[in-house]
Amino acid sequence: MNQRASVLDFVPAQSLTDRAYGEIEEMIVTLRLAPGSAISESELSAHLGIGRTPIREALQRLARERLVSIFPRRGIIVTEINVASQLRLLETRRELERLIARSAARRALPEERARFTKIAGIFEQSAKTNDETTFMRVDREFNELCAAAARNEFGAGAMSLMHSLSRRFWYIHYQQAADMPATAKLHANIARAIARGDEDGAARALDRLIDEIEKFTRATVGIDT
User: Comparing C-alpha atoms, which of 186, 188, 189, 202 is closest to residue 149?
Assistant: First the structure.
């Protein structure tokens, strides 16, 4: 089985809206749809082979996550990047994601713990091969699994608004300031702590990841404090 297939093993049966969201979100995060660019429902529908209604629903979700802005009678625009907003996002993300990691470690079902272990292995493999595409894909699956395993719909809902913005910022700047293999290994440490039910270990691993992301974010604009 190839590496791409092993990532897709984690993806459950999807609605057309979920599929549209996943495809468009990846296009935005990986800059195939660049910040500031205009996008159209009809073009996305033709490109993805998905009807207009699921595309529209996916774009509405992306608007809630601040990856696109929808302007009546003017169109849909991919949002720009704002470093100051990214730093404020990290302040919030640290507290919420620590809660999610601890809750997932405490509440995950046996089959979810097995998935966390497998995801950790894929993170580690992407670190060895410096494969940012696999890392980005499994990161989204990891975030979704954490949200499900935590069994806290309020925390999960808040976190869902942050992850795509964080992934896009990382993708834009990681070659300049971030260490992709190190970042993947930090994710693997969180996944393994959750898998073994170690709440404190998951929280510590999460803090180390956010420390690294904050350092990287500040480095992109030369902020030292």
Answer: 202
**By the 8 A CB rule, do 119 and 195 touch?**
no
Residue 12: pLDDT over 60: no
Task: Indicate if the pLDDT at residue 86 is higher than 60.
Answer: yes
Instruction: Report the CATH fold assignment for 83-219.
Output: Four Helix Bundle (Hemerythrin (Met), subunit A) (1.20.120)
| Pairing status of strand 68-71 against strand 75-78 | antiparallel
| Domain boundaries along the sequence of the chain | 10-78, 83-219
Q: Record the pTM.
A: 0.77
E-strand stretches of the chain = 38-39, 68-71, 75-78
Write phi, then psi, for 47 (nearest 5 degrees).
Answer: -65, -40
- How many Cβ atoms from other residues are within 10 Å of residue 183's Cβ? 22
As beta bridge partners, residue 69 has 77
| pLDDT at res. 81 | 86
- Looking at residue 1, its pLDDT comes to 37
10-78: CATH topology: Arc Repressor Mutant, subunit A (1.10.10)
